[in-house]
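Hi support team,

I'm opening this ticket because the web form for multi-chain structure prediction keeps timing out on my end. I have pasted the exact lines I submitted so you can reproduce it. The total is 588 residues across two entries, so I didn't expect it to be a heavy job. Is there a limit I'm missing, or should I split the entries? Thanks in advance, R.K.
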Amino acid sequence: MKDKIIEVDKISKYFGEIKAVDQIDFYVEEGEILGFLGPNGSGKTTTVRLLNGVLFPEKGNIKVKGLSTINDGNKIRKITGVLTESAALYESMSARENLEFFAHLYNVNPREIPKRVDSLLEEFGLSKRQKNRVAEFSTGMKKKLSIARALIDDPEILFLDEPTTSLDPESARDLISYIKKLNRERKLTIFVCTHNLAQAEDFCKRFIFLDKGRIIEEGTLGEIESKYITSVEMEIVYQGGIDDAYLNDYKYKKVDLDKIIITIDNKKQVPQFIREISQKTDIYSINTLNSNLEKLYFEVRRVYYENAGNGSNN
Amino acid sequence: MRMQAMAAIIKKDIKSISDNIQIWLPLIILPLIFVIIIPTVLIILAKTQNMSAVNGIDLIIKTIDKFPAHMEVHTFSDINQKALFLVLNSMFIPFFLMIPAMISSTTAAYSFAGEKEKKTLESLLYAPISEKDLFVAKILGPFIASTAVTIFCFICYGIVVDVLTYDIFGKLIFPRLNWLIVVFWLSPILSIFAIFFNVYISARVKGFQEAYQLGALIVLPIVALLYSQLTGLLLLNNIILFLFGLVLLIVSVILIVKTGKSFTRNKLFLSQIK
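Hello R.K., no limit was hit. The queue was backed up. Here is the completed structure from your submission:
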């Protein structure tokens, strides 16, 4: 296991009567991409604010690289870069002026600033519009500039709150590739809050599911899957018939003349099943259909609400 | 203190004011009226009209009579000279004080409440800058703007007054010690007071307009000063001007302590998301 770069110990944050974050415990490993998933209002953005020491928890402790968010906030903010939807850019300033301004705020060596700004503008395809006022930018361009701003001081931890919202599919794909590259090449720790499950599945290595300020599940896709989904779905392509009487022992559906999707209730039965079916027909391929994150997410929420007994997961 | 970050904030604040015509246009018009147009009209009137025939001159004569005998105003024999000297050198002071008051109030409202309104305060709070540095930088921007404009207006007013009145008095009548007290003691303190008053207000309002309107309350003590002087209740001699500055300074220190305590990231952030 790698070092824990963020350690959160039973933190709570209330806004009046509302429990925005309620007794959550979690960690982030150095160099990982963690997906912090939950519906709107589940406490994702509040957690980012707490982790950066701009809000203080009512209860609990947070350590970022061993530093306390309450006492060492500035040291923490020096190693983090943050993108949230609510932290705006200066619209009356140009893209370049915005980046230069934040470079000064982050105490980047003044001699390094032009080079750093040029490189980020180039990286995000904003070089040609660098002198335009941000007010003239599209939402997607503002998002790119905000991410460039978050990277201005070459942070060790990057917080991205809904990074692909308002980006067109191509820009979203490019951004995800860029995030993966940052993680791969610079070993950057990335904390991503999102409700875009398909994208999260693409680039996050571990997940935390949040609901109404509480953590309802966490782990890698495989770990969570093993807790919630015991059955296995397999797509089988064959030639010739299969005896219906044999198949009737399983849940299955014919998707084509020579293709079925079959559900095996217990993973342990899979080898035995493959041996049996191979003797009954000519098998061309067997593919396990993995659970996707979306399916898993809703299953986790369903089970959570079922156990909680309130029946509502809206 | 991190000078690089503070200088960036000050530069950004001053630039954002100069880029916003809705902010700087009134800030140009007000001084233009007070230090060029009104004194010019008054001087032309004094040159062309017999002041003893002007309505309300009795009030000014009564005020002149209240000045101690050794005061310079009594060295002039002509009523036009006396009235003009009094108006330009004493009665104009409250009008002039409107300049630092309004400029610092408007720029401070824009600097603090404007950041909240545009949701850029959150971006600042994510940066590794201490609350103290942020506080000082946000105050220095409006203070520098206000002081620079005040000194510029003082110079312009002096040129207008001395050039246009030289043929009337045969000497330079501006500035006198009272104006030096106004410009280098009272105006900076008034600016500080107006800025902190706005910081206090800005934490409690949602946006610039609200802060700007409430911040305009700052002119009330100046209007009271103007009224007192016009009615002869209070003559703005050097001691009164100094004491007025001292009182404002004490009130400002109280405001600094009060606003400084609430200038924490956590509280600023909560005020941003309210």
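A quick check on our side: Chain A has two domains: 4-225, 230-289. Let us know if the file doesn't open in your viewer.
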